[in-house]
């Protein structure tokens, strides 16, 4: 085998390996985002809070179902957990109004609530 053919084979092999690694990274990233989203929705489902969407109150179960439906619709376009929180889970797509979460006497936007819940995620829950 001459040097040019050997170089071409090495170059081709490096592109194949790089492509495989990129695909593995993408799958890992996608899985991490989905894991985070399911984590957040499950916390919403378990929360002893009231959720306000477009001025109407909803139970924790209704809010979780709504976000799960929005996630199912948008997940192919979501590239990060922050994007899910900011673009899907924090406001109405129709009115642009922020969703709110009321726990006890405190009212915060769902963006703040979800971001805080994500920050509470332990390393064990991150896998």
Give an overview in words:
The structure is a single chain. With 127 residues, the chain is an alpha+beta fold. 61% of the residues lie in helices and 12% in strands. The chain is built from four helices and four strands. The protein has helices spanning 3-46, 60-74, 81-88, 110-119; strands spanning 50-53, 56-58, 100-103, 106-109. A four-stranded antiparallel beta sheet has the order 2-1-3-4. Helix 1 (3-46) packs antiparallel against helix 2. It is globular and about 40 Å long. Mean pLDDT is 83; it is low at 11-26.
Question: What class would the helix/strand composition place it in?
Answer: alpha+beta
Which word captures the global form?
globular
How many runs of DSSP E, i.e. beta strands? 4
Major sheet: arrangement of strands: 2-1-3-4
Report the portion of residues in β strands. Answer: 5-15%
Uncertain regions spanning at least 5 consecutive residues:
11-26
Mean pLDDT: 83
Query: What's the SSE pattern?
Result: HEEHHEEH
Number of helices, where a helix is a run of at least 4 consecutive DSSP H or I residues? 4
Can you give the helix content as a percent range?
A: 55-70%
End-to-end CA span: 46 Å
User: How can the largest sheet be summarized?
Assistant: 4 strands, antiparallel
Radius of gyration: 21 Å
